[in-house]
Structures are given as structure tokens and as C-alpha cells.
Amino acid sequence: MQTQLAQLQESLCQSALVLVLVDHTQGSVPREAGAWMAVTPQHIINTIGGGHLEFQAIEQARALLRNPSRDPLVLRYALGPSLGQCCGGVVHLRFEHCSVSTPEDAARRVQRLRAHHPPVALFGGGHVGRALIQVLAPLPYAITWIDSRDEIFPHPLPAHVQTEHSDPVQSAVEDLAPGSQVLIMSFSHAEDLEVVAACLRRQRLHQDLPYVGLIGSATKWATFRHRLESRGFTQAELDRITCPIGIAGIAGKEPEVIAVAVAAQLLQSRWPTDQAT
pTM to 2 decimals? Predict the structure, then answer.
């Protein structure tokens, strides 16, 4: 199944459309800034939250398709009684008319939207790694998938997944995008240990990896802790590693089950419960 961004890129090359973006918000709202929807004469791609807000946005976008404007239009929508939505916040929507694009222009526009996606770095192309890619594919992440083995990655890949061959695999940690959530599940415990150590060294310098998760049991992590302590890492540093990974209460060991539990934990770490609206 195509991702929404892949659908958008294809549509940009086929017909004019209006891109509707959540420009900024106030208070409780359905979607965050950067959320988007594309409106073509026949189709809707993605969503800005549904309800009357989205219905009115579609009407406005279709009107803009009939009477194009070169300049973007930003409109304010109060989510109160007039829209029949009880969120109570305010959404400012940006409407951009897009003419039929060349493949290069379409790719650039999609890349701009992808820049809003937080980065995830996945080390390991095994069974769980492959299952996790499938679970993460429809979610708003920009994924870098890394392995030390040649020809390990399947084809085709989702549009927002980039692969990297790195040998030694831990050398890729230095070049990860700031803010990356890191998942470590290589084919080798020795590789896993070196990637964890590289993440810890980077954290000492930059403190820019908000989540580092290692697949494995509590016994595996106890062994790793001992080895990492012998390398000079402190208890406080080691406490920032998540192992085992995945939300609690899901006991299945199938790769697909583990992938769902891990994806849920990534989402929790991005939007902690006490920050949810």
C-alpha cells in the first residue's frame, strides 16, 4: 500500500491540487502544526483531523481549485459552536494551490512535508526489523534503516525509509539526525553492544537522542550493563537505555507482535501521556 506521501507525490505529477496545512494552533485541536491534507478535484489524501473543520477546508480547497491563486491563503477556524466541534481551540490553515508538477518539483514538495517527521534510526535488518518497518510505514516518521550486511534490505521500501550499509555498524551513530529515536536489534550481540556504546558516547557530547532502545531480555541487559560499566559509563548514563523494549503487558514473541509493542512505545516517548491533549 502506498503511503500518503507517495500518493501525494504521484498526484502532484498528474493534476492540480490544493495542499492544506495546519499552519499553527491555539488550545485543544485535532491535529498538530505540520499536519496536512491534499485535495484534488476527485480525491482527498490524508487528513487534518476530520469533522466540520475538514469539511470546510475541503470546500475552501475546491473553491481554490476552481479559482486558483498564486499566493497561499491562511484562514482562521475557531473550533467552537459555529463548527460544531467541542475541542475549543483555534486552527490556522494554510491553503497552497499546486499546479501539475514535474517529478523533481513533486519530490521537493514531498521532502518539505517529510521534514516535519521525527527521525527514527533502526539498527538491524532481521525478522523484527522487517516487521517493525511495516508497522512504522504509515506512521509519521522519517526512518533510517542500518545494517552491516550487504543486500539485507528488502525491495521495494516505503517512500520515507532510507537504508544505509555501515561496517562497522556503530560508525553510523555519529551521523544520525539530531533528535533521533534509536532502536538496536542487529543480528549480533557484539554489534548491539557497540551501537549502544556509540549512542552513550554521543549522548555525553550532545544529549540529542531522546530514546535509545535495545531488544533483548533483562538478562541480556544485565550483561550489557556490566560490560558498559567496565568501559566507564555511569549508572545515570546506563539508566537512559530502554531494555527490554516495547510497552508492558504484551507477551507475544512473534516479530509482528514485538513490532507493534515497540512502535507504541516510540509513540509514547514522542507524546508522553501527561502532555496529551
Answer: 0.76
Count the helix, strand and coil residues of the chain and give each as a percent rounded to the nearest 5. Answer: 40, 20, 40
Query: Any idea where the domains of the chain sit in the sequence?
Result: 4-114, 119-275
- Chain segment 226-270, per-residue pLDDT in tens: 999 999 999 999 999 999 999 989 988 999 999 999 999 999 887
Q: What is the reported pLDDT for 277? A: 41
What percent of the chain is modeled with pLDDT above 90?
Answer: 70
**Which residue(s) pair with 163 in the sheet?**
145
Q: What is the C-alpha separation between 196 and 241, in angstroms, rounded?
A: 8
* 119-275 is classed CATH 3.40.50.720: yes
| Element holding 8 (H helix, E strand) | helix 4-12
Spatial neighbors of 13 by CB under 8 A, at least 6 apart, are: 100, 101, 102, 103, 106
Q: b/e per residue, 195-217, with b = 16+ CB within 10 A?
A: bbbbbbbbbeeeeebebbbbbbe
